[in-house]
Amino acid sequence: MIRKLYSLLMHGAQPLLRRKLRRRGAAEPGYLEAIDERFGYYGTSAAPGALWIHAVSLGETRAAALLVQALRERDPQLRLLLTHGTATGRAEGAKLLREGDVQAWLPWDTPEAVRRFLAHFQPCAGVLMETEVWPNLAEACKRAGVPLALANARLSEKSLRKALRLRRLSQPAYASLRAVWAQTDADAQRLARLGARVGGVFGNLKFDAQPDAALLERGRGWRSRIAQPVLMFASSREGEEAELFRVLAAQRKLAHAGFARRDSDRAVSGIRWLVVPRHPQRFDEVAALAQQAGLSVSRRSEWDVEQGPHDTDVWIGDSLGEMALYYGLADVALLGGSFLPLGGQNLIEAAACGCPVVMGPHTFNFAEAAEDALAAGAAVRVETLEEGVRRAAGIAADAAQRERHVGAAQTFAQAHRGAAERTATALLSLIA
């Protein structure tokens, strides 16, 4: 009965979804592509028997790429069906396609749409990346005999509490999964409370990512020509940039007036700042916020490849797929999403690039990775953004301290690799 009520709500929300897609499409045209697929209508032909991998957004798609690489090393003839929920995820997923592969939107979770999806593509099995467990989709796969797994699975304490409030809906969905491979022991315990059959704790696939060596080297080359320390706000979220610019403007006024109260205050005034927003549709907004705070701005899209950043107060990283370049350019990174109660962003790529991280109090989306990085010396934690700015400036100004953090970050990243191999082995066993 509860799932019928849920299905009615999902049906009723379809006009709102269409309106949202049109609104998002004005800023990101990718959302206007193949809208009918969102409702289970697919115009492209598809041969049955492909392995279906669902990666909702950019981060999940990059994790899926590591799994795909490990799978193809074992089975070069493997055909894939890739589905996504966001325009950035779909654009990134297109890079993984080979001849015979298919890409589509995952449909809105109504019984009819998911049945049409499964009938059209007839996958041999499905893999949901990280968190995307939908009640009607899980039930439809069970009825159609499509084994459905949850890979690189994570579940925060907050998400668990929410799911338990709707347990009559969530528990049957998790219990219907054929296999669940968790990132951490804590994730495994939380998933088990929802009825999931956890088949292993394999670690986080994202540790297996190798930074783009050319981008990393270019960033370091640019950094070598800059006299001042460079601090980065990595994957910043709405509300965080405005607070950063407020802090910087205040520190700048103090320094110009000769009222800097401590060495760290004076250090902040001599910093070059690189801000890389998490969501590309906010690039213009963040640049405008910096200018409103009285800070001069230049954007990555304006830079010459050879010359690098311009001589301004703030640089905006307004490009996709260049995080290795940005981490190479930075001495220290503040972790976006962690200074407001948003759960934090992933710090693994920063560690792999040897960039020390300063994180705020809110890292519940990546709790174990954050605590492990803290214990390893790859990251430090502060309570406020203002404190984070001072701490990051202090690390950047102290060469010996920074080198200790750099070494710890690289060691931390190396020690946690291997999830892609373990997941690929388990998945091929499930298919067989």
TrEMBL record:
Principal subcellular localisation of the protein: membrane
Keywords on record: Cell membrane, Lipopolysaccharide biosynthesis, Membrane, Transferase
Record-marked site positions (Transition state stabilizer): E130, K206
GO molecular function: Kdo transferase activity
Enzymatic reactions: lipid IVA (E. coli) + CMP-3-deoxy-beta-D-manno-octulosonate = alpha-Kdo-(2->6)-lipid IVA (E. coli) + CMP + H(+)
Name of one Pfam family that matches: Glycos_transf_N
Compartments where found: Cell membrane
Active site as annotated: E60 (proton acceptor)
Keyword Membrane in annotation: yes
Enzyme class per UniProt: transferase
Pathway in which the depicted protein is active: Bacterial outer membrane biogenesis; LPS core biosynthesis
UniProt entry tagged with the keyword Transferase: yes
Every 3-deoxy-D-manno-octulosonic-acid transferase N-terminal domain range: 34-209
GO cellular component: plasma membrane
E.C. number(s) listed in UniProt: 2.4.99.12
The protein's role, per its UniProt record: Involved in lipopolysaccharide (LPS) biosynthesis. Catalyzes the transfer of 3-deoxy-D-manno-octulosonate (Kdo) residue(s) from CMP-Kdo to lipid IV(A), the tetraacyldisaccharide-1,4'-bisphosphate precursor of lipid A.
Entry protein name: 3-deoxy-D-manno-octulosonic acid transferase
Species lineage: Bacteria, Pseudomonadati, Pseudomonadota, Betaproteobacteria, Burkholderiales
